[in-house]
Design brief:
single chain; elongated; 125 residues; two-stranded antiparallel ribbon; mainly alpha
Amino acid sequence: MHSKKRHGCVTAWLALMIVTNAMTAIAYLFFDDKLFQGLENPMSQSTLFLLTCTGAANLFFALMLLQWKKWAFWGFGASSVVILIVNMSIGLSFGQSAIGLIGIVLLFAILQIKEGGVSAWENLE
């Protein structure tokens, strides 16, 4: 068995995901009134709680990807679908809501970057 290595760009992307998802979850908790003041309909507390939980879950998934867990990628995919549905339910168009799906495609592409001839995706367990 070879030792697992990931390209520095993959590590940097995962680190960025950890920071941004932590900040997102914190923002939903403490700055919800400022984040959503432009929406036509006020956001319910349950919707806000769901968004906070998805931010926290995405933080966890990014940490697990650092630990080489492939299921964490699929967790990001599920989270992206949940966020798509929430965004549409709060009045965003499908186009605006679907932009979030680009993140999962981008993550998959970044996991294809090879280090020592092996991609991070191939190293995931």
